[in-house]
Amino acid sequence: MKINSILLACVLVLGICGCGDSDKKNAPAVVYKGVYSLGPEVKSFKDCETGNEFWVTDNSSTMEKEYAELNFQKPYEPVYVEVEGNKIKATKADALDSQYDSIIVVKKLIKITKVIPQDMCN
């Protein structure tokens, strides 16, 4: 009887521990609104709501293409974007500038425009 109780307790503890650490890459996407800049050395996103800056990983394979179609004369021109994605913590293996401690993994580009709404993004 005691052994069964101990085994049941162990199974419950393992089940609870397994539920709390889900992979954020598979978490439901969140809509982020902000300013995106692209150039040879930078893919950055500044969240309009928080002002935080993030490195961008484009899993949608459309952001760079859509940015290029805006026909800027020089790199790093900011654009307003709305994207679906997830925020993950950057690791040393990501080899990012220390300016970026997190990464926005873009799953879907919703909107991209040269017009940056001043009421939303200062």
Can you walk me through this structure?
The protein has helices at 2-20, 63-68; strands at 30-38, 43-47, 53-58, 79-89, 102-113. It has 122 residues and is α+β, with helices and mostly antiparallel strands. The protein is built from 2 helices and 5 strands. Mean pLDDT is 81; it is low at 3-22. It has one domain (24-113): Beta Barrel (OB fold (Dihydrolipoamide Acetyltransferase, E2P)). A 5-stranded mixed barrel has the order 1-2-3-5-4. 20% of the residues lie in helices and 35% in strands. This is NlpE C-terminal OB domain-containing protein. Residues 29-114 form the NlpE C-terminal OB domain. Pfam families: NlpE_C.
Task: Quickly count the helices.
Answer: 2
Structural class: alpha+beta
Tell me the name of the CATH homologous superfamily: NlpE, C-terminal domain
Q: Tell me the strand percentage band.
A: 35-45%
CATH topology title: OB fold (Dihydrolipoamide Acetyltransferase, E2P)
CATH class: Mainly Beta
Overall number of domains = 1
The major β-sheet equals:
5 strands, mixed, barrel
CATH architecture: Beta Barrel
The helix content is 10-25%
Arithmetic mean of pLDDT:
81
CA radius of gyration: 20 Å
Distance between the termini: 65 Å
Q: Which strand order does the major sheet show? A: 1-2-3-5-4
Written as H for each helix and E for each strand, in order along the chain, the element string is HEEEHEE
- Strand tally is 5
Task: Report the uncertain regions.
Answer: 3-22
Globally, the shape reads globular
